[in-house]
Design goal:
By secondary structure, the chain is α+β, with helices and mostly antiparallel strands. It contains nine helices and ten strands. The chain is globular. 40% of the residues are buried.
């Protein structure tokens, strides 16, 4: 199993660089890491707290390809009587470390976690088998139907798009798609875009998209790809559809040019996911240490 090369625990002046390099390595291999599905393995989750990791941490932990996406820190492992197997290497989890006297979230730092398969002595009772969505199409339909303050959905034009001026999502007719899963994947992607409307999350990237056109590899599209990939796995359609976004080479160039793009996009994507799903479940992002 490939492991991320993690420095020693603590703060680092270039945590953004560490994270970015891990992502760039995947892009160099032709892998777009934020679209790696977890519908079969479960969303990366802390074994002890049972809180899912989100944003950049879900990407970092989800892309390494374990059969079960449960992780825990070395201290948590010791508390439950487990041990790290020989020659296993940790994975990075980013968090904001509070700084006294500052109004900002603090300093970006990291800690290290291990997948349960890298450990011994863990009670099988703690590792709950992930059960995916039984009816993916019904789950997609429910998300689209129950979204709060959703836009008008039209089926007039022959291409899919979101128009932020009229606040309308246009979808080609369902019969024109290869499958219903492809239809809902496209719809969910456009619904993520619409969360940036001024009446919802008022996302700057969406405004720029409206003003200067719709560049393929942009912050807004990165937000949409990250958030919609999460929704695909959440509903269970991720195993059916194929990735049709910007290629790994294009995203590599964008990430190199935009140093903080990934962290910014992940933060915005989390809010978009919560808006579409209608929950803010307190799951972990780049927030605080376990």
């Amino acid at each position: 199993m490939e492991a991320q090369t993690a420095p020693q625990r603590g703060a680092n002046n270039d945590v953004v660089g560490i994270i970015t390099n891990v992502i760039l390595e995947k892009l160099e291999q032709g892998i777009v890491p934020w679209v790696v599905p977890w519908h079969e393995t479960g969303m990366p989750t802390n074994l002890v707290s049972k809180k899912p990791y989100r944003g950049i941490n879900a990407i970092l932990l989800g892309m390494v390809g374990y059969e079960t996406n449960y992780f825990l820190t070395e201290n948590q492992l010791a508390d439950i009587g487990g041990t790290i197997r020989p020659n296993e290497h940790p994975h990075i989890v980013a968090y904001w470390r509070a700084t006294d006297g500052e109004a900002s979230p603090g300093k970006l730092s990291y800690y290290r976690v291990y997948n349960v398969s890298q450990c011994g002595g863990i009670s099988p009772d703690l590792v709950t088998k992930h059960v995916g969505e039984e009816n993916p199409l019904a789950a997609c339909e429910q998300l689209a139907k129950e979204m709060t303050n959703k836009p008008q959905i039209s089926h007039k034009a022959t291409r899919p798009f979101y128009d932020p001026v009229s606040d309308v999502v246009n979808m080609p007719k369902k019969s024109t798609f290869p499958s219903e899963e492809h239809y809902y994947a496209t719809l969910l992607h456009q619904l993520v875009h619409c969360t940036g409307h001024v009446t919802r999350l008022d996302r700057v990237g969406l405004v720029q998209m409206q003003e200067i056109g719709y560049p393929g590899c942009s912050l807004e599209e990165l937000v949409a790809e990250i958030a919609s990939a999460h929704l695909y796995s959440l509903t269970g359609i991720a195993g059916v559809i194929e990735y049709e976004g910007c290629g790994a080479t294009n995203w590599y160039e964008y990430v190199v040019k935009s140093r903080h793009a990934l962290l910014t996009a992940c933060s915005l994507a989390i809010r978009s996911i919560d808006y579409v799903v209608g929950t803010g479940d307190g799951a972990e992002s780049v927030a605080q240490e376990e």
